[in-house]
């Protein structure tokens, strides 16, 4: 029974935190607000983002309420999964609370890297199949801050832009080494 509840919790809260993080990122990179993805995410998350904006102000043009809500959703997810797995928040409840908060932040970072990996991968494929398709502008908005770093330094080889390869490799390295090591260190705090 607990496995089914964990699955449902991970599915719904995971997808909701993905929607909140995507909404934050699309706003941060100033993606066109009229695209279907932005409109869908706004419709899906407005019920909680609008009230939160009244309490949590933005900072330097970033919608901190959406980012904080994504983190809180991950916090509920991590805490809920631990509770369903039978973790006892005993005398070290303060340390456990800090560990859960850090795990939620690490999960959010990993989720962002997965968003970036998918966006870069899909954009690279679409550049060969449908370079002027409707999804191209939104994907370009999502990947431009990271691809641009390499595009300015690495010239195309035979007309092929290699910057997506570098971004994908760096994302994989970040997922494999520092984030995993941090996650293991934080998990030992529990």
In short:
The protein has one domain (2-188). It has seven helices and no strands.
| Number of helical stretches of at least 4 residues | 7
Domain count: the total is: 1
- Radius of gyration (CA) equals 19 Å
Structural class call reads mainly alpha
Strand content: under 5%
Largest sheet data: none
- Secondary structure tally: strands: 0
What gross morphology would you assign?
Answer: globular
Query: Average pLDDT, to the nearest integer?
Result: 94
Low-confidence stretches: none
Helical proportion, percent range: over 70%
Question: What's the order of the H and E elements?
Answer: HHHHHHH
Give the termini distance in whole angstroms: 24 Å
Quaternary class: single chain
Q: What is the topology?
A:
Elements: H1 2-28, H2 36-55, H3 64-84, H4 93-129, H5 136-151, H6 163-176, H7 178-188
Helix pairs in contact: 1-2, 1-3, 1-4, 2-3, 3-4, 4-5, 4-6, 4-7, 5-6, 6-7
List descriptors.
190 residues, mainly alpha, 77% helix, 0% strand, globular
Protein architecture, described:
This protein is mainly α and 190 residues long. The protein has one domain (2-188). Helices cover 77% and strands 0% of the residues. The protein is built from seven helices and no strands. α2 packs across α3, α4 runs antiparallel to α6 (163-176) and α6 runs parallel beside α7. The longest helix has 37 residues, at 93-129. It is globular and about 60 Å long. The chain starts with a helix and ends with a helix. The model has no long low-confidence stretch (mean pLDDT 94).
